[in-house]
Design goal:
Elements lengths: L2 E5 L3 E2 L5 E8 L9 E7 L6 E7 L4 E3 L7 E6 L4 E6 L8 E8 L3 E4 L3 E5 L2
Parallel strand pairs: 2-11
Antiparallel strand pairs: 1-3, 3-8, 4-5, 4-9, 5-6, 7-8, 9-10, 9-11
Length: about 120
């Protein structure tokens, strides 16, 4: 059974870069036909897909975030990471990592990230 766990700082200052890691267990991030993605949900708003990385390492980004977002992976650790640059208080949200294969499932438990000075 695939499980995902997000990790990273819960507080980031404005203009800095947010960096989160997702550790995957029970499955390999190099499995074909599967992508690994990041989704965030600001308070009181709908979830927003941020981007994903596939088995070959190809990345896909939400066009509205593409200029500030970078997703990478470490296959030796079975982890993938999210970096979001130039954050602002409006980027405060719960950030989730998830697996994409005929839908997004499962999700990690999510990690709260607050952008504040």
């Amino acid at each position: 059974q695939v499980q995902l766990q997000e990790s990273g700082p819960g507080l980031v200052k404005p203009s800095e870069t947010l960096s989160l890691t997702c550790t995957v267990s029970g499955g390999s991030i190099t499995t074909n036909s599967v992508v690994w993605g990041w989704i965030r949900q600001p308070p009181g708003k709908e979830p927003e897909w941020m981007g994903a990385i596939d088995a070959s390492g190809t990345t896909y980004y939400n066009p509205s975030l593409k200029s500030r977002t970078s997703i990478s992976r470490d296959t030796s650790k079975n982890q993938f990471t999210l970096q979001l640059s130039s954050v602002a208080p409006r980027n405060t949200a719960v950030y989730y990592c998830t697996r994409g294969s005929k839908g997004w499932s499962p999700w990690g438990q999510g990690t709260q990230v607050t952008v504040s000075s």
